Amino acid sequence: MAGPQCKISWGLDVRGYCTRHVRQGLPRCTGTTTEGEPCKNTDLYDDGRCEHHPIVPCSGTVPRTGLPCKKRPKKGSAYCCAAHDQKKPFISPNEFVPEDVDLRRRYEGSVVQLYHRRDPYNGTILATRANLELDHILEKQCYSHIVVLAKLGKEDQDQIVSTLRDEVVNNEKHNLCLTHKDTNQLKGAGVFGFLDDRTTGHLLDNRGIPLKSFTTYLIEASSARARDGTARLSRTTTGRICAEMRKSAVHTRNWFDAQGETPSFQRVAEQVQDLIVEMGLNTSTLAS
Asked: I need a surface site. Which of 3, 140, 141, 150 has the fewest CB within 10 A?
């Protein structure tokens, strides 16, 4: 049942709606929710549907469940993400996690001391242990991404993954920190969005320039999760995230350069450098 008529008569838009009720006059998604109710979303695509109810959904399946994916495919693609396209090569980020090692238990004390008991992204004092997570500064998914793009043979790829896992990815002095759970999850979502668009060819324009910055991916991930009550990432925090990621990425590149002229190592080092440039981590304006 409709409520009483709104009495505001000033500041109306061209359709006659006030700022409080402006969305009521917009077309709504023609899809239905999982409960069978009409969708009320007004952020629509060309097919008259919202992000969650496309007429033609992703052609892939959800990896863990095997169920059909219902998300909207990317423009010009049959899939919503690279992970659902089985033709694309993939290395699980979990390949870079050492077996039978509790990384947090082993390294928590040293990384807390390294950053003087502060969250390197938020700058806040590390207080409640339960709300903190051990983070890989240059994320494991970044290492998966660069090794895939290096296009190595299986033997070289296995060697690189093993070497990265043992020497670089889990190095407490260069790639681990303790941060708040929300920050860690938002950072991971932003990195995923950037890497996925880079994998599917949706990152660059026809001149080879990124359509949006890595910082934008972080902010968009933050805005999306804010609807669930997750705290947003501030501009200062995204700047610090980029600065710390740059340090870790440069360390990774330099580590590979120091290994000599092994072709497989050089190819990975080149991919690291390309990632640094396209993520904008090479800019001198990053927060310190």
From this structure: 3
Residue pLDDT, tens place only, 30-53: 888 888 898 888 888 888 888 888
* DSSP 8-state secondary structure symbol assigned to residue 26: S
Residue 61, phi then psi, degrees to nearest 5 = -125, 150
Query: What's the token pair of residue 82?
Result: 């690279």
β-strand pairing of 132-136 with 176-180: antiparallel
Residue 205 in contact with residue 162, Cβ under 8 Å?
A: no
Can you give the pTM of this predicted structure? 0.84
Q: Give bridge partners of residue 68 from the DSSP assignment.
A: 61
Q: Which two tokens stand for residue 252?
A: 């990774």
- Residues 63-116 have pLDDT tens digits of 778 889 989 999 999 999 999 998 999 999 999 999 888 999 999 999 999 999
Amino acid at 270: E
Distances (CA, A) of 243 to 161, 183, 236: 25, 15, 11
Distance (Å, whole) CA 191 – CA 139: 8
Query: CA dist 235 to 188, 218, 230, 242, 286, Å?
Result: 16, 10, 16, 11, 11
Q: Give the closest residue to 241 by CA, choosing from 208, 219, 268.
A: 219
Supply φ then ψ for residue 154, to 5 degrees: -60, -45
By CB atoms closer than 10 A (0-12, 13-18, 19+), residue 52 is middle
- How far apart CA 194 and CA 233 sit, in angstroms, is 16
